[in-house]
Design brief:
CATH class: Alpha Beta
Strand content: 5-15%
Shape: globular
Order of helices and strands: HHHEHEHEHEHEHHEHHE
Largest sheet: 7 strands, parallel
Strand order of the largest sheet: 3-2-1-4-5-6-7
Number of helices: 11
CATH architecture: 3-Layer(aba) Sandwich
Structural class: alpha/beta
Helix content: 40-55%
CATH topology: Rossmann fold
Mean pLDDT: 82
CATH superfamily: NAD(P)-binding Rossmann-like Domain
Number of domains: 1
Distance between the termini: 40 Å
Radius of gyration: 18 Å
């Protein structure tokens, strides 16, 4: 292990500022955000088999050292990632699996798992056809995940959905669908996660939700009022719950992305300056930092991750 650490540090010193000159990763948010969570195949980098190559890959991406922890911080810790097959979710799963975590992931459809590059990983438990908007299905998934992977340390709620539509064009069923996709899935997942975190031997836990820029800046939600309302609910839910659970050492936070640099977003906005958009791997590192055991103080925060956009 010491050889691996020495290699990492050596590579970091050599690469310096050049390490961040190129970014990879796709996913979208805020227009459109979680759409790829359900539809697009994961596009994060492949799993490296050799430890030396793995160290090189991590160093070049800055996957661990940039956020203040080294590989295996999550050794044998169980973490649920909803929406794990999307571009952001794939990056989160990649970092966690590299660091020794046991990852559990619900998949809304069979296609999600078929396209997920880590589906055969020994530390991954994946369940098919789980509708997190259904309380019983969400609860059942968490119960099965804990049975398979052990006590729950953290839960990351990326699953969701996006929808444009002016008020005259938005039917009530569409409004409710946005609430179900974004707020209800978050509520059901969080409720189930908290139940299991309270039974993990007093360790507490970590929860990260995904809000959005229009949730904090509602004027940006013009033309997407249902989506903005649902994400504002996620933000308020996060802050209120963080206060409720603080005494149990269950720290709850959220990130609020702007438009994320994904292939889908580039295609929908071909004239945009993509260099200003935050990258999925950058957001993944922020999420992983918040659920790290080294985070002992941050709670109730909606962290803006806008990049330069």
């Amino acid at each position: 292990m010491s050889l691996l650490m020495s290699l990492l540090m050596s590579l970091l010193r050599e690469s310096g500022a050049k390490r961040r000159s190129s970014q990879s990763g796709e996913w979208g948010h805020s227009m459109p955000p979680h759409r790829s969570t359900l539809q697009d195949p994961p596009l994060c980098s492949g799993f490296l088999k050799d430890d030396r190559l793995r160290a090189i890959g991590l160093a070049r991406r800055g996957s661990f050292c940039d956020i203040g922890f080294m590989p295996h911080t999550f050794e044998n810790r169980h973490i649920v990632v909803t929406g794990g097959a999307g571009a952001l979710g794939c990056e989160v799963c990649s970092l966690l699996l590299y660091s020794g975590a046991k990852v559990s992931m619900p998949a809304f459809s069979d296609a999600e798992l078929e396209n997920f590059e880590y589906r055969e990983h020994s530390n991954l438990y994946a369940a098919r056809r789980v509708n997190l908007a259904d309380e019983e299905q969400a609860s059942g998934f968490y119960r099965q995940a804990v049975d398979q992977q052990g006590p729950l340390w953290a839960s990351v709620h990326i699953a969701g959905g996006f929808g444009m539509g002016k008020i005259a064009d938005t039917e009530l069923k569409d409004f409710r669908r946005q609430l179900d996709l974004n707020l209800v899935t978050c509520f059901n997942s969080t409720k189930a996660a908290v139940r299991h975190m309270r039974n993990n031997g007093g360790q507490g836990g970590r929860i990260v939700n995904i809000a959005a820029r229009p949730a904090l800046e509602p004027r940006q939600g013009a033309g997407m009022t249902a989506y903005a309302t649902a994400k504002a609910g996620v933000a308020a839910f996060t802050v209120a719950l963080a206060e409720e659970l603080a005494g149990e050492n269950i720290l709850v936070n959220a990130i609020a992305p702007s438009i994320i640099d994904t292939e889908a977003n580039r295609q929908s906005m071909p004239d945009a300056d993509y260099s200003k958009w935050p990258k999925p791997d950058e957001l993944a590192r922020q999420i992983v930092m918040l659920i790290s055991p080294s985070n002992t103080v941050t709670r109730g925060s909606i962290i803006t991750v806008y990049g330069r956009s």
